[in-house]
Amino acid sequence: MIAGKKLPSRAAILVTGATGQVGFELVCAMQGIGKIIALDRTAFNLFEPSQMRRVIRAIKPVVIVNAAAYTAVDAAEKNSGLAMQVNAKALSVLADEARRVGAAIIHYSTDYVFNGDKNFPYIEEDKADPRNFYGVSKLAGEQIIASSGVHHLILRTSWVYGMRGKNFLSTILRLGKEKATIKIVDDQFGSPTWSNTIATMTAHIIAKSLAAHDTRQWWQKHSGLYHLTATGSTSWHGFAKSIFDAITIERVPNIIPILTSEFPVQAERPINSCLSNDKLKRVFDLQTPRWDLALQACLRFHGKYYR
Fold first, then answer.
1. Is pTM, for the whole model, over 0.90?
2. Domain assignment present for 248
3. With CB atoms counted within 10 Å of each terminal CB, which end of the chain scores lower, N or C?
4. 83-103 pLDDT, tens per residue?
5. DSSP letter (8 states) at residue 302
């Protein structure tokens, strides 16, 4: 039960941001779990509260998986209003309408809510202290959902990549064709996480919730904040090197390690943004793959790249 209502035989699951990296993978991963309603930003625009309300009330989903986000980290420094609207303010509407129809929310956040000063992987209880406005906007979104009273899972992830959209993997593959030498930062550390991994873990969690004897009670017990990244860590340089170690191209570029100070960007990044998945494993009995094995799987899936 969610909000005292009996679930239909094909419970509706609303996926927002359905054409993005994670949203696209979610639609694939959740086949068979329920009635998937996947909407892009033309059909579910986080800048249009009235549209959001109308859509949610019409669909009456049991779960809303919010994969829509403003993810341009550097651009967020000068487009703070846009980042805050998408990553935070719109979530007030999402939470209000979810509560109205009795839906739970699954929302994705980021490792960039931390300042990176810790020497070990961050756990959910560690104090957030973002160094850039993207992190500020995502933290504000977390707080809005957590304080709304709606059943929810906030899943923090990191260094998300895939063969879709703009991300580190796609950028490195492009640069590998264009340049003989590429300089990559080697003193920032995190866990590269395949968008498929995020989607698959999310699908498992939703399936567990819908299979529960009392779905409302399940959400009351499990609502909260979790970290969801690949296992293990590397630097951006290590990530880039692993990509080129795994693919076949005519000319492998020279990958030169550099310091953060040698690569100026608009938004400051945390030096360490590794997250601990211990709570995810303990609560949901889910084990994420090692980052390097997931990368190989991603490249193998898109076979034209894999050795």
1. yes
2. no
3. C
4. 999 999 999 999 999 999 999
5. T
